[in-house]
Amino acid sequence: MKRLLACSALLALAPAVWAQSSVSAHKELKAIVDEHAQQWKDVSKQVWDYAEMGYHENKSSTLLQQQLKAAGFSIQAGVADEPTGFIASYGSGKPVIAILGEFDALPGLSQKAVPDRDPVVDGAPGHGCGHNLLGAGAALAVVSVKQYMAEHHIAGTLRFYGTPAEEGGSGKVYMVRDGLFKDVDVVLQWHPGNSNTVANGGALAVDSAKFTFHGVAAHAAMSPDRGRSALDAVMLMGTGLEYMREHVPATTRIHYIISKGGAAPNIVPDLAQMDLMARSPFNQTLAGVWARILDVAKGAALMTGTTLEVTDIGSDANIIPNDALAPVAQKNLEEVGGYTMTPDQKAFAIELRKSLNAESIPSLDVTEKVQPLRTYDPNQPSASTDVGDVSWNVPTIGFSTATFVPGVAAHSWQAAASAGMSIGQTGMVIASKALALTAIDLFTTPQLVSDAKADFDKQLAGKTYSSPIPAGQKPLINYRGK
Questions:
Q1: What single string gives the DSSP state of each residue in 292-326?
Q2: What is the chain's mean pLDDT, rounded?
Q3: How far apart are the first and last CA of the chain?
Q4: Strand, helix or coil at 482?
Q5: Is 169 contained in some domain?
Q6: Are residue 211 and residue 264 in the same domain, yes or no?
Q7: Nearest to 279 by CA among 255, 258, 259
Q8: Which of 316, 336, 355 is the last residue of a domain?
Q9: How do residues 253-300 score in pLDDT, each as one tens digit?
Q10: Among 15, 196, 232, 478, which has the minimal tally of Cβ within 10 Å of its Cβ?
Q11: Does residue 295 fall inside a structural domain?
Q12: Given pLDDT bands bounded at 50, 70 and 90, which one contains residue 4?
């Protein structure tokens, strides 16, 4: 009886002992992140200087690979037919915990790290979505977790996925298709933003393609009857889409450009092209919208006597939430906390915000706060990401931290300016710590991994993952042009 009572007492103490151990581990891990932070801030600035487009991030990818190899990771380069894609690995066995990193820039957003519009090179790419911070911050997290694992003999496999071409190239989709995540237990990710939040699900599913119409050229005045205008087909497709907008769910987005419209006004255009993207909060809804868009395009071809070719198909899924991982991530982000701007950062922010065209701008002290955990609202504005396809295949949770001046929108020169200076780098370290704490919790608490998988199965009950990208289509290396 005394032995039973003693065992019961030990069991009762176990949660408290684990909690104390967790606090100690977290404190040590945060210190390790701080120890390596300056190195990876410098890396983020180098990637910001390179500002390379999707699938052509050669310098950026090489730099990250070199730094991770020097930190003790093994490197598998050129994965999934992506020249700049790679996987960095440490350890062996289960669990397998992965952290995602991106490093591609956006066209036309070249910008110096100053609070006024001042391109480094007019028309050149720039990091208007902060992916220089994203890749470097994720790498800072894995390097710190690896050091802690080695020092404390923690079993498992830690991976960094270097994922190129997130901005429209669907880089992660090809990685998923090649089975590169099939043995991963949990995926962690983060993205730059202007507040500190846990991202549990969300993002808009997106499909994109080039719609090319082929007609018959002819003299536009002497023999127009012999011509079949591909431009007419593009314009009729656009008209059909505008009428269609009234009859799709309110959260649907359809946007397009005419990328090719003919050679000269006195020649009936024999080739014209529309580049189109459609988005919706849920894959299933978008599939129906996309089918109707294809019908509109076919109808335009029929009306004009042209032929239609649909190529360069891209697609990102919506992000599947994980309600088991979300509270763990929230707890860790709250433990890390936000940051208070230095006087120099505040002066930069005040000057930059003079350029913002917005009805309401949040207070600068939003960087100091961690937003409460919220359920994804499909009626709120959102963007798209190929993280969604990963989340349909592996339990996934994410963070966003205040790397942009509060009030700044992504995909802007203001975001590029923020990502190239200390405001972005300070927010990056917040994300690195939250990622690192969550990763070590997963390595040291098997139940968390089990709970994440159970919720993953629950979230996907009755749903099937598929991508509209054709099975034989290789990554579109020059989707942005060369």
A1: HHHHHHHHHHHHHT-EEEEEEEEEEPPBPP-TTHH
A2: 94
A3: 78
A4: coil
A5: yes
A6: yes
A7: 255
A8: 316
A9: 999 999 999 999 999 999 999 999 999 999 999 999 999 999 999 999
A10: 15
A11: yes
A12: very low
